[in-house]
Amino acid sequence: MSKTLDEIIAAAYTEEGLTEQDILGDAGAVSSGNLALDHILGVGGFPRGRSIELSGLSQSGKTTVACAVIAGAQRNGEKVVYVDFEQALDEPYLNALGVQTRDPKDPNRFHPLFKPYPAASLEQGMEVAGDAVRSGEVGVIVFDSVAAMTPRKSVEAYSDTRTLAMERARVLGNALASLNPNLARTKTTAIFINHIRDVIETSPTRPGMPKRTTTPGGTSLKFYASVRCEFAVVKTFKHERFDVLTGEKIDEPHAVLVKVKVTKNKLAPPFQSAELYLELGKGFSNPYSAMSVLVGNKVVRKAGAYYYFPDSIYHPQMKSGDKGPSMQGIQSVLDLAELDTTWGVSLADAARSVLADHRKQAPQVIPEPIEPDHGEPDPCSEPAVEALSLDESPTDPPAPVFAATRASEGSGVRFGGPPPTR
Fold first, then answer.
1. For the segment 62-81, what is each residue's pLDDT rounded down to a tens digit?
2. pTM for the structure as a whole
3. Contact 174, 226 (CB under 8 A)
């Protein structure tokens, strides 16, 4: 006698040791260490049980975000594995970002919650990572970086660039196919740090055309990653410093403004972006992100170079005036938040409350039932679904209408309206 569907699924769950709550339940998220980045990710941070790709040019803050995630995981008592393919681990910088690298009881040993591993080859690193994830003791695992993953064949013998790229993509694709299911079962977050490189054109391009860019590792990581973030430096902040060697004042960079764009997100709407303030040698500034939220939502009023604060986040060092307590310049606000951490926490809490209210007021989209359509729609008939229109003045030109109609034979959704121009 054949089994029913419920019996087949129940037997499969029992064999794998799964429950319905493991599949339907929310695995949660691990914070990125910055409230603006957590907000655009949609779930409060990087999701657990998923693969994450952080890509961008050098010195754009990818490793800094990964280290902030490691520090947060350690504060929660989770073990972290750092697979260092570049073999360029900087312990003082990790300590500056809050990562505990050494055991307090024995400084000659690594911290019990921090397990770095310098991988000599791609196969070796992914094998150790797979065993660590299957143990179920790891909360976060970081791969630094995909561009430095060298297959064993290329380590043992010379291979040209094309062969290296193809072999890396093949080995990485096979490793991710076995790694991703184990990440989901153990609720482990895997962060892959990647670079952005120019595509070497085989034919000359026309002048003025932008360069094409790509990320190493092939297309397998783009497919398996649930969240992909791109980092780019948009501005550099400098301050004057007296140079002892030359006896002159020079402009020295002390911070950069990094734009982060979520190019793929399977858990929230993608293509969200935010600008983060990265202090060189210190990490991303939460007070800057909090001020961006408060000023954007008019909780803190900005007039010229002055910021006027409400009484709920007042500080005695602020200047009193007719328009309320104020401070001049964003740098003075950041310095005060660093000096008085309690006030900095209250500033971040005020921004989080604004973001929470914004999420509550977001409109809920209620889908309407769609009648099954088994035939080809009449091309001369009007679309059954009306397009959403904005409030327009009589002088505005009519907006183009793009209405969704149901395609036949389950071929997906087809968008009606004017044909595209060639």
1. 999 999 999 999 999 999 99
2. 0.80
3. no
